[in-house]
Each structure stands twice: as structure tokens, then as C-alpha cells.
Write the C-alpha cells for this entry.
Amino acid sequence: MRPVSAVCWGTLLCLVLLGAWDLFRGNEENRCSMTYMFEYPEYLKIKLPKRISRRYPSYELYLYGEGVYAKENAKLELTGIPILFLPGNAGSYKQVRSLGSIALRKAENIDLRFNFNFFSISFNEELVALYGGSLRKQTKFVYECVKAILQLYKGQDFAPHNVAIIGHSMGGLVARALFALKNFNPDLINLIITQATPHVAPVLPVDRFLIDFYTNVNNYWILKSKELRNVTILSVAGGFRDYQVRSGLAFLPRSNSQHSALSVLSSSVPRCWASTDHLSIVWCKELILATIRAFFDLIDEDTKQISEDPERRMAVLNHHFVRHPAKYFEEKDDTVITLSGSSIWIPVQTLKWTYTVNKESNETFFTFLLSSFRKNYSHFHCQSNFMYTNSWIYGCKNNGSFKCLEVDDLSWKTELLPTVKVVTLKLEDYSSFSHVVVHVPTTNGTKFTIDCEFFNEDSRTVHVPVTHLLSFGLYSSKVKLNSSGLVHNVQLQHFNQIYQAFNILIERHCQSVKERKLSVYRLRVPWSLEDSTVISSDAVSTGIPAKLHVAQSVNDSSVVTLILYSSQDCQFEISVKTSFMQILGQVIRFHGPSLPVFIVSNILLAYGGQLKALISEGHCIKYDLALERTARPYKIEPIINICKFLLGFNWFRSFWNVLLLPELDTIIQTSQGVWFPLASLFLLVCGTGIAYWFGILFSALLRLFSSLWIALKRSCVLPEDNKILTLRRLCLCVLLVILSMMTCGAFALLLVYLHYLFKVIKLYSAVRQSRSSFNLVAKAGEMLNHSKKETIENCGSANISAAGEGQHLSSSCNLPSHSDMDNAVDNLNMHITIMNLLTWIILLSSPSLIYWLKNLRYSIQLDPDPCGPVAIILIFALEMIMNSSITSVKSSILLKTASRLQLLLAIATVAFGTMHLYRALYFVTLSLFFHVLCCFV
């Protein structure tokens, strides 16, 4: 191992590990409460028609129940509202229990005036995120289940005509795919709620069936957006704690109708305010409560089913998932309400005002005369820690009397935040109002405070330019907020890209220590609902990580804003510093899944370097030396950037289309706003480091296995150059091809890989023993020559023993010639590189193998098989390569072509494989195919 190379590649590997550590360590602790059942959960299996059961033997439909409710539903005399839960990748149908149990408790609290029937589907915990061949089958089964569910209510009063769907992970994508089925009636589903569903693209695009499924679903919703405007979709993402599905993928495509689609993060959902991991999103109590509240508010009193009005559905979802006004949901109307009676009316004429209640108080109204402040101030702000009152603030027209008429319920302008509810009014928008009235209800002994003030927006808004990406946290941007007030806005300028990441440090200095109140800091991202909220503790300093899930669009000019809600006696100092660790985490989050492609690309470069060494030096150099010589980012990155630039011209794009080349993956990622400017360069360098250390590890394992083989069968005979293709090997290839077609292509590839590995271990063992024999014979000869010059008394028993061992080795083992030894070493170096390449190909094809093994009891054949066609070519190629010799490659007329081809294949792997990982298998197959040609031509 070369020390300089080891240090360089080790440093790069550490960078990748640091980025992965920042990704997986999470940005906050789990703040979700666990849901639990009051009674033992039961799952009643719904009997489906025989034709459905025969067609889908591994899928089942269940009805969730508890206690008495489960017994009542045993006869399937259902009267509730049907909701169907779809589990995701490796998900269980039992994940519905949190939703079902809380909905049942909620129904009991309202005396079962309304109730829901929660159904769930068992997909046999299939790995549909890694194998797309079963997604269409799942979609068709869901369609049959929807029809079967509605059939259960046939003939009943208020029988439902549609089913609401909740889909977790890939289950949400299956729900959207229903509408793309032929002859599907879109009226059967009017509401879809998805949890941590990657709508934009798959997390790991390891097979083409997965990509095709996504393309068909998203294209259908884009083309049919007007026809599907009556279908309401809510997508809830988990935030930064979900490292399996990054939240940017969970945002519904922007081309969808904005009136019927809504995407939020769980950290921004009112009364939840918590990031969830990929599994906890199905049981997070705060999020499940918000979902169930929304379902009950969606019920139409007349039909006793979910409302058919899409505008009402969106209003309910916005109420519970976007901006909660701290009141029960009710539709707005123009009813005029008179605020009068025995209430206490207190006029307030001060600029800043605080009201504190430490004991029980009666209903009170505080009125602010707007004409006294409107000339000098632009905004009115009020905040209270009294959280859940149905009415709080009103705008009134009044001629001086305290009997006000409510002309507009300003409670809808109220926003609920952790520990506080706030409202900020722009006075010029309410020029017709003469007063603003703050309502203080009967407290019943509850301690609370209300703070209000008038202010000018400019005095409370500061602009802070964020630090540069390459500052590496060496300096920071700072600002001091000397103005005492309840609310401050800090606009973070030039913070709009996903590759930016910062640490925001807020230092709070309050005058009154005893009466210090908790401060609430909200990082608001205006172009997407991914706001995060942090509550300050008693500590003076509070750190907030700032990074994005979705980049800002080109036409958007809004600014990320840090909003501070605090008491009036506090001042703040804010510093913004670039976080290098979080930037690495963002790179791994957005581009980590494509890292195997860059590793394969580097190995292809090393393989090309070995072929060039055969031409120039006559020998095949070692894998690590070839990687060090040839793995250079400037060989790949500039070519891709040039092609990307030229594709902006019509003439070049026409030429590109004539060649039937697909779109560059970098162009697709740039259009989606998820491309880092230096991501490809960084991943290429990191891929080199991983490929280097992976090769070191593979060589160590080879040495270990060869030691075991030497212990079992001691033989120093090097393999002879035989025919590459014999009748026996041809029969073996045919058998493997038949096995691949009847079972799984990845399984046949694994068998060939193990066969190849066994051959390499035997060759490695023979080379080690031959070298050892050469060394012992040479040492014995030196000792014999030395013993002739000295007496036997001075020679010693050790020299005599060594000489005897050397004579024994030379007589018992036919030592190869130096040329044979050199050829064997060259063969070993070439095979080790090919084995490194094949190892990553086996890893990329393993998802379909795992899926096949998991479903082996239902079907012995994987249909469709993503690796099937390629496996047939690779089986013949590998069986011939593992028996080939380096001498046949040296003398080939195609050697120069093959050596130059590896660079083109390495470029193509990066250009077309970052978002289509399965394409790496095609380019490696082409490379090995040319190696076979070199053996014959």
C-alpha cells in the first residue's frame, strides 16, 4: 500500500463518512409521542372473490377493530365511512392500528355520531421501493379492494360512493397510480393522504420498471390535472429525521393543480411541530391526531360521508396542516355578531400593552382605537400563551360605543405556534375598521398573558446576507436587534439553494430574569411548507440548523425569514455561519444514492489503465496502481459539462436525438432543483477513495480465503492456458441461462460470481505458493553456496534444514518458469479488477434477488425480471473471461479499442446512471463483452 495514496483516499473516505454521520445523526430528538390502543387490536380478514384470490395469492384485505367494535363488525354490517390504508416498502397492514384506534376513540367521544371503518391491505411486505415489477400488480389489487369495500355498504342508508386512501411510503404512489389504470372510475376516490411518499422519483432507481412506473404515474397526473381537480391530495413528509426518503421527493409535482394538491412537512404541521423518521410517521401521536381531526371535519352533515366539495376539503386540510387559527373548523360566513352584554370592556390607548391573569377571571374585551395608531404605525401584533379559545380577536366598526359588530372574524388570521398563538395585522388592509377587540374568555383559574403592540414593519425587519458556501465556517454574518418588541423578522438573503447549510446562533439578553418568557423562533421558507419551529429554553444561546428540502424556483423572489417571537424586554444577537458538516450531509442526502455509479466509473477507468499498461509495458499492473494512475475527475466531468452546454443548442440536440441518446441525468436534476454545482466532482473523488479501499479490503479477503484453500489443498501448480470455450463450459453456460430464465437473473449472476471468485482464489493461492517456493529455493541455494566456504561445524542446523527444505520443494513441486509466473500475476491482477467491478454489479442487482427470495413460496420465476436479458450476456462473458489468459488479450487487435472504450463507458456511466442506477449494469456488460472479443480476435 502506498502511504501517500492511502492518506489521500482515507481522507476522502472520511469526508463521505462525516457526511453520512451528519445525515443519520438527525437534527433533533424524536418529539413524537407514541400512540397506543385501549383494547387489543383485531384484524378481520375480508373474503375476496375467488378470481381475485387466485390472481393475487400473496395479497389480503383486512378490517381493523378493537374490543366491542371488532365484535360488532364481525358480520360486516358496516355503517361508517371507509378509509383504506396502503403500507409501503416492506410495510405491514398492522400499521393502520394507530389511525384506527384514535379514530375510534374520537368517534366514541362524540357518541358515535360519525365513525370510520379502517381497512388495510397486506402486500406481503414486498420491497417495492427496490423492485418496481410488482407495483402495477399492487395497483390492480387495490382497485379490486376498493370495489370490494364499496360492495360491503351496498343497500345501506348513506352508503358511500367513494373511499378515502391513506398511503405510507410507496403506498401513496400506488394510490395515485390507481387513476392511471385503464377504465378506472376516478369518482371512486376523492381524497388521498400520503405519508413520506417519494412522489417525484424513486429513492433508489435500481431497475427500469421502477422508473417506468414513476414516469407513467407522474405524466398521467400532469396531462390529466384538469380532469382530476376533484381529487384532493395531501402529502406529508417527515423532515430531516427521515433519512430513507428525503422530503424533497415527497413534494407533489408542481405542475399538479394547486387547488387540489398540498405538500407539507410534519415539522410545520400545527400542533405537531415535530420531524418524524420514515416509520414513526405512521404512529406519531401528534400527527395522527391532526389527521383524525381533519377526517372528522371533512364529514358532510347531510350525506354523513366525506364532503364532495373539493374547496371545503382543501379548507379543512389547510386548517389542520398549514395554518391553525386556534379554533374549531367552521366555514366562514357573513353573519354579523354583536359583542355586547354583561362583558367588561376596557379601552387601551398605549403603544405596547400586557395583560396577565394569575387566577380565575371573567370574560373581558380589550378594545384598541385604530385611528390613534394608524397614522404612525403599519402593523398590529398580539400574542398569548392561552392556546385554545374558539374566538380571540375581532375587527369592529364602531363610532365610539363599546357595542361592536363583528364584520370579519379575524380569528382566521390567528396562527397557532408551540406555547403561543399570534396574530399580525397589516392595518392598511383593514381601513374600514375603527377598533380591534381582543377577547379574554373566562379562565377558570388558568394562568396566561396577552401581549400586544403597534409597530412599523421596517423597524422590525433586518436583512442578513448568508455566508458563502466556501467560507467553511471561518467567519459569520452577525446582526443585533436592539429594538425591544414582540416580533422580529430576520431575512436571510441569498439563501435559496439546497447545497447551502448554516448554523444560526441566537443569543437572547432579557432584562427581567424572573419574568423571562420562552421565545419561539420560526424559520419560514415561503416557497414550500417546510417551516421549522424552535422553542428556546432557559439557556441564553439557541442554535438552529438551516437547510432546505426544496430549492427556490427561478421566478420566485421571496426570502427565507427567521421570525422571533419573544417578550418586550429581550434583545437578540444573531449570527449565521456556514456549516461544512451539514453541507456534506446535504450532498449525501441528495446524491448519496448515486455514489455506486461513481465507484463503478472509477473501476472502469482502472480497468482501462490496465489494458493500456498491457500495450505500453507488456504487463498488467495492480488494481490500486491502475486506479491511482487513471482515476482522474478531469477525464469525466469536463466532457459531461460540455455536453450539457451544447445541448442548449438545437443543432446539437437534434444530433443527440439522432443517436437515440437519453437525456443527461444532470439536466434532469438541474430542472428539479436538486443539483449541486460541485457534486459530481466531489462524488467522483470520493468514489475513487471508496474504490481504492474497497480494493484493499477485497485483496485482504482474497488472501484470507487463499490461506484457507492452501491449508485444505496444498498445490503450487499454476493453471495452464486452455481453450476459452469448451463443450463442458458451453453446457454450463446453457444451464445457467435456463436457470436465469426460469428463476431470477440476479440469482444466476450470483452463482457465476461465486464460481468466478472460486477460480480467482485458486489462482491467488497458486501464485502465493509459487512465490513462496521461488523464495525458499533461492534462499536454499544461497545457503548451500555459503556452506561450501565454511566448515560444517560453523554452518548450523538451521542452514542445513533450510537447504533440505529447498531441495524437497524443488523436487516435489514443478516450479513454473519466470514467464509463466509473470503471466499468472498479470492474470491475477486483471481478474481482481474484474471481480471488483462485478461485486458492485451484484450489489446493484441484489434488490431483485432479495425480492425473488422473499416471494419464492408464491412463484419460482421472477416476472418481470430486470436483470434477465443482461444476465444471459454476462453468463457467457464471465464464464469465458474466468478461463481466459492475459496472453490472448495481449495479442488481440482490439486491445487498443478496448482500452480507449473504458473511458467512454466511464463517462457514460456518470452521465446516464446517476438517476438510473440500473444503467451501470449495461455499461459494465458492454465492457466485459469487448474483453471477450479481445480473447478471440
